[in-house]
Known about the structure:
Distance between the termini: 39 Å
Strand content: 15-25%
CATH class of the largest domain: Mainly Beta
Number of strands: 17
CATH superfamily of the largest domain: RlpA-like domain
Helix content: 10-25%
Radius of gyration: 25 Å
CATH architecture of the largest domain: Beta Barrel
Number of domains: 3
Oligomer: single chain
Amino acid sequence: MIRDLRRLLAAASLVLAACSSTPTKDTVPGQSACPAVTSCSVCPVCPVEPAKPDAPPLALASYADLPGWDSDDLAGAWNAFLRSCRALRFRDSWVAACGKAAEIATPTSDAIRAFFEANFTPYRVTNPDGTTEGRVTGYYEPLLSGSRVRVAPFEYPLYAPPDDLLIIDLASVAPDTKHLRLRGRLEGRRVVPYYTRAEIDSGVAPVVGKEIVWVDDPIEAFFLQIQGSGRVRLPSGETIRIGYADQNGHPYASIGRYLVEQGELALDEASMQGIQAWARANPSRVAQLLNQNPSYVFFRELPPDDVAQGADAATGYVGPIGALGVPLTAERSIAVDRRFVPLGAPVYLVTTWPNSDEPLRRLMVAQDTGGAIRGPVRADFFWGTGREAGRLAGRMRQDGAMWVLLPNGYPVPREPATGN
């Protein structure tokens, strides 16, 4: 009934507009407007232009369309791609391509380029409105100081998922909810939203006993939740790895945007480093700031066996485990919205270096996702582990374009996918 009433009101407003004898200021010379009449028994109504259909997320392209494709050192992305093949090699669309990749004995940049050009088709990633540029941000693996027990200065816990956190799966009856984080808890016989960040930190949620480790900085703990994984160095010198386990189901809200809206930071100061500096200068207001983001991430400790198998042969570095289930590669893995870009696929990214106009054009591999990574042309660039990676990630907020490379014959969806 309310919807019908709104339609009647909308129709009435159109009729009134049509009966006006004074043209509006928005009328553009040369455009036809609704005919102005001084009186009428039946008022004409301007026709409503039908909404244009959304552009398909992937548009066929050619390698000649990829700026800098011939100059990128593709060898840097090869190990990342082979890791994708470990996860995808048994899927029908990937069997042939991954099989041929395994046959390359000497993966030079030229050999890799020839491999992709022969076995993969590029598609330009496109927004629903037909535009082809979007936001490229950065993330990294933080390194924190912590303790297995609560002892000063280690006062801030990282929790495993609480026992009362419900994972709600409605995909069988509502397929559109497949990629939504539906989380809740029981209140009597009702399922209600799970506790917010403020409620969890105030002790309302049953998280006592779920502490994995205690760290010494609430801001660092907060950014660890945003990054989704990290390392914690213990007083003994041992370093443990923490990975994403679950989330409370509340949407992410930017504390940087909040500080800008409150006049606390200028827009160009709202980087990770700027937020950290503000927190150091305003320690009594940190809890209030963090509670502006109701989203809360729970972790799991990664056993050594989870990461040792993915060590880089040259450096020994092992990246955090991404959503694809394989270790991420510094400066070659990105997080994407898997509804539009299939996880595991190579993605040619054209953007610029953080806070710079210097071109950054390279082949990446879509191996992760993130709560804030929403939309077709949207990527989060993984910079690696530690302080320098954090510096680059915190400053990266660039425009960019993306081409996804898919095996020849891959069934390309014309609408957002509901699964991969």
